[in-house]
Amino acid sequence: MSSRDFERSMPESGHHLQRKPSWWSYTHLDGWMLALLALLCGFGLFILYSASGKDVAYVSRQAVRMGAGFVALVVLAQFSPRLMARWAPWVYGVGVLLLVGVILFGVGAKGAQRWLALPGFRFQPSEIMKLILPLMIAAYLAKRPLPPSLKHCFWSLVMIGLPTVLIMKQPDLGTSLLIAASGIFVLLFSGIRWRYIFAALGAAGAALPGLWMVMKDYQRQRVLTFLDPESDPLGSGWNIIQSKTAIGSGGVWGKGWLSGTQSQLDFLPESHTDFIIAVIAEELGMIGVILLLAVYILIIGRGLWMAAQIQDCFGRLVAGSIVLTFFVYVFVNIGMVSGLLPVVGVPLPMVSYGGTSIVTLMAGFGILMSMHTHKQMLLR
Amino acid sequence: MSRPERFKDHHQEGRTFRFRAVLAFLFVLLMIGVLVGRMYYLQVVEHDRYAAMSDNNRVQLKPVAPTRGLIYDRNGILLADNRPSYSVTILKEEVGKALEPTLAELRKLIPITDKEVERFRKRLKQRRRPYESVPVRFRLTEEEIARLAVNYHRLPGVQVEANLIRYYPYGESLVHALGYVGRINQRELAAVDPDNYAATHYIGKLGVEKFYEPTLHGEVGWQKVETNARGRVMRVLESTDPVPGEDLQLTIDLRLQLITEKLLQGEKASIVAIEPKTGDILALVSTPGYDPNLFVTGISTKDYSRLRDSPDLPLFNRALRGGYPPGSTVKPITALAAIDSESVPETHTVRDPGWYSLRPGGRRYRDWKRGGHGNKVDLKLAMAQSCDVWFYDAGYKTGIDNMSDYLGRFGFGQVTSLDLPEALPAVLPSREWKKRTRRLPWYPGDSLNLSIGQGFLVATPLQLATASAVLANRGKWVQPKMLKGVRTPLDDGGVGLNMPVLDNPQSHPKDVELNHPEFWDLTVDNMVEVVHGERGTARKIGLDAPYTIAGKTGTAQVVGIKQDERYDADKLEKRFHDHALFIAFAPAEDPKIALAVIVENGGGGSSTAAPLARKVMDAYLLGDDLEPKPEVASE
């Protein structure tokens, strides 16, 4: 399968014009990637059974979500990139309006407004934005000569900044970070000049104090706790101390599946959602974590490989951004649970229990597959 | 600003993308490497530290209460038992915010008083281990347990728990001898080893239960348990069993105690009986008593105020704390003081016109008998008839210092018992004592009063019984005690007894050494005369006695009678009637029991107290029970 993909990706060879395409190519899916995602999902359900305290209801609900995610993946893979590029600005516009709507009419919990309630159901507009922002930026830049000029960079940043700020206002630091990253990755892949990159990094470093000023109290508290968790061992430092204890006590080989004392005896908070990596580290040890990271590397590698084969500029940028954003999930999540980064609400992709993130991530992979498989049709 | 229009260079863009994709992948690998490094640091380098932290999280030491030792009488009859009792408790962690509705629901199911709710809230506020349930009501009936059981599903966090609690099968008959246990309070907890009492809810509050608390309590056991984050025990990892408390065998003879208690029913009275050879307290009765079982799980306010406000003072332990003027019952000792100190010869006689005065025309100290006892009253007659004038004269000549010295040697004015923590020393007057407490010198009149056991001298029934035992022993001291020994199972299946080593045992006086040891027999003979002599004040009880009794009656004034007044019982309220007293031991030649009887406002020692003593001695020496024996003595 892979070799055929490879051949198809070489337009100069012209093989694809001579060889009769198989039925598989009509699905617009990538077999390797699907297999890796299925492996990841299976692993996620396996550890969720333990992290939820052997609660089959949790596992089956998560499986249903994964199914929904797979449907979203298959559906989005069928949309042609050209269609997506054309619709991107409109969906982006609607998305921004919805985010404004969240600020005005949103509902939520724990002091954050993240949902729009419609009769019968409610949804998080920021999840739509996760998908649409890279499409929007890529659509904008792909029409322009690359590397982008300063002016185009500026407008791209405005388009990135608008939803980022709106989501930060909700407040949802984790999501706004992921969305900003997804847009910036498009810029980076577009070939933006290194001197701009370094200048931006310098400016960002200088702007950190400003960021501190706009942060909410609870966000500042998280940063302070991150810097010194022992300062408040029973309050906000509890989470990070317990997760580090869970990870560290797991050792190389772990305490065994279903036998992690930190997680099974409820010392580890959020053990089935954001902190699930601590359960893996405690029960399956460093070996388990490394195996999981290996799967992630394979997914990211395969994703970048697919992106690199895309001939169309728009598709390439979108694909690259989706893959790197996926990596940001992984890094920020594991980094925060292991105490390398402050606690921001980012789930471990496909493993953490939780509603929308799995569907959004799967949909992202659907877009990636669409970009990858529709490339020949874009050649004019 | 003419810049050449740039065109899209698809190949260049593709190359740039691929280059950056490779860079990105390398960056991803680098960052994953950072994560792996972090994991290595936490899981390998710092593993031991975190493993220890994880164990500290989950492993707790949980104390297990030892079973309290039982208490038996001298013949092995169980006096204090542990019985399962069911209480309903609430687990706050599980009830959470629904505490009030749960309480309201509970009160619909079983009766719970406002007071109990109030006490429950107080307990809830006290410091406790997480996941330690808090009792709401104790002593559930079968029906209440059943009613709770069918409603369990509606009341999460509500539990019926079984505990062993103290039960006193003989209730108020033994309360003043045994004491009781009650729920331990903060102050008591501060006085004991908190580790050893970590799981204990009850502690000895009074009496033997209090004194032998360390022996009865036992040693706490520990369970190493795994708990979850909220403290709920998930499983037991290892455990050290508690060491149960040791069983006590008391000197109390339950049969005698019950008979004695029955004799005193309806009276405010006390009888203490001692085995003179050993100091064993055979019976220690103070009536009225009260039911100690009420106090074990916390007495209700209603019950408590009923006891506290009763004019008969049931809570008051008369045997150990009741201070009574001993009246004529001290005469054997004041007589001994007079003749042994050679203040008067043993042949001393007085003329008794019915009164005595220190100087002609001075204040008249009355004899209890208006006409007096005749012109030539010697010691033998003075004892038999309890002639006050002989003692006034002898007491005046003996002086306070001698009398105080001899009385002290018999245990007056001090606690001599081994293991009765509530015992009071009462008062033994002396020159120095009067100066200290009254800021007055000792007057000769005080000596006269002391010689007949009135005035400043105050003694408890236990002290009188002890003095009686010392007289019975001809001066040899035995320390009154409640404990026969700690029961230890023997290899042959029997039970052995041994005395525990006490930290700071109560001392008792040295044996009474007389200058003239022959006076012991003289004194005992005189006391026998009281009962068996034809003019003895207690001759009624001696008439048909199959053994020799040595005794001394006493009648203590409760109100002062003025110089020219007569004591007329009919005109006085019962509470101003004289106290009736009697001390005795028997058989006189080889005493097996010594006792003291006090009946408050009972009238005369000879008419009220002596017959009671006779019945107690019959019960002990002859094995008589109350019913079959006709009331001989009260004829």
Describe this structure in words.
Chain B: Catalyzes cross-linking of the peptidoglycan cell wall. Chain B: This is Peptidoglycan D,D-transpeptidase MrdA. Chain B: One of its GO terms (molecular function) is penicillin binding. The complex is a heterodimer of chains A (380) and B (635). Chain A is mainly α and 380 residues long. Chain A has 2 domains: 30-55 and 216-354 and 361-374, no CATH class; 79-214, no CATH class. In chain A, 71% of the residues lie in helices and 3% in strands. Chain A is built from 17 helices and 3 strands. Chain A has a 3-stranded antiparallel β-sheet. In chain A, helix 7 (125-142) runs antiparallel to helix 8 and helix 8 (150-168) runs antiparallel to helix 9. Chain A is globular and about 55 Å long. Chain B has 635 residues and is α+β, with helices and mostly antiparallel strands. Chain B has 2 domains: 62-250, Alpha-Beta Complex (Penicillin-binding protein 2a (Domain 2)); 254-291 and 317-622, 3-Layer(aba) Sandwich (Beta-lactamase). In chain B, 37% of the residues lie in helices and 19% in strands. Chain B has 23 helices and 23 strands. In chain B, helix 17 crosses helix 19. Chain B is elongated, with a radius of gyration of 37 Å. The interface between A and B is large, with 49 and 44 residues.
